[in-house]
Design goal:
single chain, about 100 residues, elongated
């Protein structure tokens, strides 16, 4: 049973940040020498790939939600699943403010 929704964009971002950490750790441990500017492409490419992955996953999720007849509501007062608990817009589009 899943406790939360799978977010592949976060997985990709986390993988690249772990790669950056391993690269720094190897340099600090003396296993290899890494120039300081090598982290910039690792982090930027990781964040770009994470953004693309998150956009694709969100599009697929919205498309599936629209075709399965679920309607996109969670049954808890009509708010969409993405806006529950943190303020933001409700399913009707009205702003609820920071307190919900």
């Amino acid at each position: 049973m899943l406790r939360h929704e799978f977010r592949p964009g976060r997985l990709v971002a986390g993988t690249f940040f772990v790669l950056a950490g391993v690269t720094f750790a190897g340099d600090a441990g003396g296993l290899w020498e890494t120039p300081w500017f090598a982290m910039v492409p690792i982090v930027v490419i990781g964040l770009a790939l994470a953004a693309v992955t998150a956009l694709l996953a969100g599009g697929i999720r919205r498309r599936r939600r629209g075709t399965d007849g679920a309607g996109g509501t969670s049954g808890g007062g009509g708010a969409s699943a993405g806006s529950e608990g943190r303020g933001g817009a409700t399913a009707t589009g009205a702003w609820r403010g920071p307190t919900g």
